[in-house]
């Protein structure tokens, strides 16, 4: 039986307010024989808790993109445009970029954001993605 993990994302804004979002059943390339060929595709179960809100479910099913390996499906290179790798959405990159820049460099450019809590033109100060095994 496959082990099940939950994901907790801790966030901090520029005023040092903190928030979080939590999901059940986190995995990458869930059913792939070769995760690298599958792009380490994001899989999440249900949003289970957190005042930051569910911004990440929109990104489920997308591959992890980096500036030198654009797998996001959007016309642009989201990792280059936002400033860091992530599971970007195929339409306008999506609303979460936890490796994005601290400040948007161009008009309407997203950066380090979690759109249901901190979004353009504001950016986050810090984030942590933590996973742990769900006890049986
Ligand atoms: Ca692209």
TrEMBL record:
One of the protein's GO biological processes: elastic fiber assembly
Residue ranges of domain Fibrinogen C-terminal in the record: 1-135
Gene3D superfamilies linked to this entry: Gamma Fibrinogen, chain A, domain 1
GO CC terms of this entry: extracellular space
Taxonomic superkingdom: Eukaryota
Pfam families reported in the protein's UniProt record: Fibrinogen_C (PF00147)
Record-given protein name: Fibrinogen C-terminal domain-containing protein
Protein source organism: Aquarana catesbeiana
């Amino acid at each position: 039986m496959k082990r099940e993990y939950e994901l907790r994302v801790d966030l901090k804004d520029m005023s040092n307010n903190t928030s979080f979002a939590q999901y059940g059943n986190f995995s990458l390339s869930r059913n792939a024989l070769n995760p690298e060929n599958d792009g380490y595709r994001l899989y999440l179960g249900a949003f289970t808790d957190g005042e930051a809100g569910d911004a990440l479910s929109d990104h489920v099913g997308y591959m992890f993109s980096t500036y030198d390996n654009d797998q996001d499906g959007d016309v642009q290179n989201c990792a280059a445009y936002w400033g860091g790798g992530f599971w970007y959405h195929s339409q306008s990159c999506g609303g979460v970029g936890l490796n994005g820049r601290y400040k948007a460099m161009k008009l309407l450019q997203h950066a380090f954001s979690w759109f249901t809590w901190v979004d353009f033109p504001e950016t986050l100060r810090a984030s942590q993605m933590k996973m742990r095994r769900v006890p049986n």
